[in-house]
Amino acid sequence: MKKGIFLFIIISLLLLISCSPTQLVGVDSITTKDFRVYTQVDEITLYQQGLAVTIVSLDFDVNKKYGVTITSPLQSYSWHALLSPVKKDTISSLVIEDLLMPSLTPFPSGVYTLDILLDDTSFVKSSFEYERNSNEKKLEPIAYAIEEIDGSFTISFSPEIDGNVTIELYDASHSLLLTLKDLFTNEKLNDESFRESIDYIIIYSNNDIYRIIL
Fold first, then answer.
1. Which of 162, 156, 197, 206 is nearest to 177 (CA)?
2. Which residue has the higher pLDDT, 202 or 13?
């Protein structure tokens, strides 16, 4: 009997020494931002709805990574990410920028659940309500070309794309080759071997994203 009590005391002391206090983390706010995605592969075109989610908490540690899971109403879809917080105006946030639905499938309306895995294996649970604009229009197809104008090569689109536009060029290994803004020209485009190495381009225009696989 005494041996059992002594063993219980030893185990209790070891647990007290080895366990550190759990860091409490609370979610202060959740905001969402809609975007549209258009993908073109040869003669195939795909349209998708996209969503970016920003999770704000004063308790996030920028030196840690957090596992985030977002689940749609009725648990029909879920998205997972491992993220490090970013600081904006001294406030830490987790930003998920690429939640996508399957082509031609709208985001379900309702309450989305949020699970954040902490490094002590505990979960912080939260939720947010989301409803997509039912009148949202699909992105229209665009034509892409690299043209020589006055001895320099430039990227052009038909029809022209409005707003602040950023173009990223990638090779087949998904390495970023070049980023273009404002004037869609660069001396690298004058190199034929460089142009031939371009496998796909991504165009960011306001809340729209075009992906064109060559």
1. 197
2. 202
Q: Which amino acid is present at 205?
A: S
Length of the chain: 214
∠ CA 5-8-13, rounded to 5°: 130
Burial code (b: 16+ CB inside 10 Å, e: under 16) for 80-113 equals ebebebeeeeeebbbbbeebbbeeeeebbeeebe
The residue among 130, 154, 179 that closes a domain is 130
d(Cα 54, Cα 97) in Å, to the nearest integer? Answer: 8
Could you tell me which of 54, 77, 69 has the C-alpha nearest to residue 124?
69
Q: Do residues 65 and 156 share a domain?
A: no
User: How many other CB atoms are found less than 10 A from the CB of residue 79?
Assistant: 16
Q: Which domain holds residue 154?
A: 143-213
Q: Is residue 148 part of a domain?
A: yes
CATH assignment at residue 57:
2.60.40
- Percent of the chain as helix, strand, coil, to the nearest 5: 15, 50, 35
Same domain, 47 and 125: yes
Q: What is the pTM of this model?
A: 0.77
**Two tokens at 159?**
């029809």
Cα separation values, 178 from 13, 162, 170, 174, Å: 59, 21, 7, 12
Residue 4 lies in a domain: no
The 10s digit of each residue's pLDDT in 188-206 is 999 999 999 999 999 999 8
